[in-house]
Structure formats: structure tokens, C-alpha cells
Write a structure and sequence with these properties.
Elements lengths: L5 E5 L5 H9 L4 E2 L22 H6 L8 E5 L9 H8 L4 E6 L2 H15 L8 H6 L1 H5 L16 H4 L2 H12 L4 E5 H6 L1 H12 L16 E3 L2 H8 L3 H10 L4 H18 L1 E3 L7 H10 L1 H11 L10
Parallel strand pairs: 1-3, 1-4, 2-3, 4-5
Antiparallel strand pairs: 6-7
Length: about 300
């Protein structure tokens, strides 16, 4: 039975999707086509794609004779995933990707808006201000997929998250990739990852970036497709005189089509300089702690 032996555990918006796509091109590596399996995080509030070990391992049936791995970016945030992965495979190798906190939070908020379901506060600053309420279960979007994804500040407190994996697996089984390095020289970062995984390092994949920034063309339309007014749904039964189940599926497909056409690839608008500076100061001490843990000076993240 095929069994994953490496895990890309996060963080979100750090290039994990691209890395998975690059690694799966390697002839000696198998990664399931479905990313984010989330089997090893029993403390997560989100849905899992596999609820039993048998279901989980079924995703790796196509990897016979290859090195198998997976990427689930909320494993890093989870307080349970590291120990659960270790119990499953104590010899596993762990890949962690990290990014400058303010840029990550802003990018994560932008992604939620584009997806249209996990976030309903359009203004990034106001979304940050809602965190305390959300920790108490208030102001949660009706179709929120995973509560922790809305706790932007908690997501980027990397030091304790990384230390948890260091303490569980040992540093020699952890490979940390800084997003800046990944962007500047993707080929080098990729080769170093192959060397860490102990597979042929000279393979050259298609390094086209994946999961680039997307923006909503019309925010009101996006929200309307997520939570349409009740009277619109009532009117729909007159225009679509089908059985309720058929009508529901047709409306679901229609809303999905509208959301898709309402998204465009575009550069993210610059974050307000004053807000950026304030957040950089807020996370300066955290970045100093992370720098000490990694043995690398990342304090430039706290500067403009």
C-alpha cells in the first residue's frame, strides 16, 4: 500500500500550490491531483476530504513505486497535525514555506474575497478588526469553510508553529523555504527541495507560477451569488418549473458560472502604507523570534 512520506504543511499563500505542481511533474514523485486533504488535523474546524485512514490512503493508489507526498497548508497552523503525522510516519519529511506576515495576511484576505465564501468583510482593515469577535464565534460568514482562516494575525505567528515541527521531527527532517527565495530563484529552491527529498535533483519542470492573485470584478454580484435574497429563490421556481432537487442543481451551476466569470487575474492593489507600517511594527518581535529559531535574519520583513 502506498504511503505518503513527505508533507508540505504550509503556510497558506506562500507558494505551496506552485511547489506541489512542480513536484508532481518529477518522474519519481507522486502527489494526488486533489490538494488539501486535511486528514492530519483533528483540531481543524474545516471539512476533510478523507475521514478514515483507508479513504486517505486511497488518494495515493496511483503512486506505486514513487515517493508519495501531499500538501495541506493548514497542517502548520494546527496544534495536532505535527504529532498526528509523526504517529502515522515518524520518518516523514516536512516542507514548510513561510512569507512576510503582512503580505501573507493581505493576500489571504484577497483570496477569500475571490473565492467568495470564506470572507464577507471586503475591507482588509475591517476584517482584521473583526478577529476578536470571530474568536468568540461572532460575525462568521454563513458559508465559512474554516474559522481559523479568518484569524489573520494568528495564521502568521510562525515561530511556535515551526517549533512544534522542529520539536516533533527534528530539524534534519524539516526543510524551510522562504517565499522571497522561492520567487527570486524558483529553479534553485526547487532543486534544493529535490535534494532534501533525495530524488534526482537535475529534473527541470515547467515552472509557470500557479494560484496567482485573483480579484472580484463586482463585489456585490459575488456576494449575491453566495447568499441570494429569499425572494429571488422563490421567484426562481416559477422560471424553473422543475423538481426542487433539479432546480437546486441548476441554480448551483448558474451561481458557480457567475462567480467564475466575475473573477479576473490582476495585481493586488497596494496596501495602505500606514496600515502596512503599523502591522510591521506589530509583528516585529514575532519576526525576531522566528529569525532566532531559523538562524536566519528576517528582520527586513519589518521594514518598508
Amino acid at each position: 500500500m502506498n504511503k505518503p512520506s513527505f508533507f508540505i504543511v504550509g503556510a497558506p499563500k506562500c507558494g505551496t500550490t506552485s511547489l506541489c505542481k512542480y513536484l508532481e511533474q518529477h518522474p519519481d514523485i507522486f502527489i494526488p491531483s486533489i490538494k488539501e486533504l486535511y486528514y492530519f488535523c483533528t483540531d481543524s474546524t474545516g471539512k476533510k476530504r478523507a475521514n478514515t485512514l483507508e479513504e486517505y490512503l486511497s488518494f495515493f493508489e496511483g503512486g506505486k513505486g514513487k515517493l508519495c507526498g501531499e500538501g495541506s497548508v493548514w497542517y502548520l497552523f494546527s496544534k495536532e497535525a505535527a504529532s498526528e503525522i509523526y504517529k502515522f510516519n515518524p520518518e516523514a519529511k516536512i516542507i514548510i514555506m513561510l512569507r512576510e506576515p503582512v503580505s501573507l495576511m493581505y493576500s489571504l484576505h484577497s483570496m477569500h474575497l475571490a473565492n467568495g465564501s470564506n470572507e464577507d468583510i471586503l475591507d482588509f482593515k475591517l476584517a482584521l478588526e473583526a478577529e476578536e469577535d470571530r474568536k468568540q464565534g461572532k460575525r462568521i460568514p454563513e458559508k465559512c469553510f474554516r474559522l481559523e482562516e479568518l484569524l489573520y494575525r494568528e495564521v502568521v505567528k510562525f515561530t511556535d508553529q515551526v517549533k512544534r515541527y522542529f520539536d516533533t521531527f527534528g530539524r534534519n527532517r524539516i526543510h524551510v523555504i522562504i517565499f522571497d527565495d522561492f520567487q527570486v530563484d524558483t529553479a534553485k529552491a526547487y532543486r534544493e527541495t529535490l535534494e532534501f527529498l533525495d530524488v534526482e535533483p537535475d529534473f527541470v519542470p515547467n515552472l509557470t507560477p500557479r494560484n496567482t492573485n485573483r480579484q472580484v470584478r463586482n463585489a456585490f454580484l459575488q456576494q449575491l451569488t453566495i447568499k441570494p435574497p429569499t425572494n429571488v429563490l422563490e421567484i426562481g421556481k416559477y422560471f424553473l418549473p422543475f423538481p426542487r432537487s433539479v432546480r437546486r442543481n441548476l441554480l448551483k451551476k448558474f451561481k458557480k458560472s457567475i462567480r467564475r466569470s466575475n473573477i479576473q487575474k490582476a495585481s493586488r492593489p497596494p496596501l495602505d502604507p500606514k496600515l502596512r507600517q503599523s502591522l510591521q511594527q506589530e509583528f516585529a518581535a514575532e519576526i525576531e523570534r522566528l529569525s532566532a529559531l531559523l538562524g536566519r535574519d528576517l528582520t527586513y520583513w519589518s521594514k518598508d
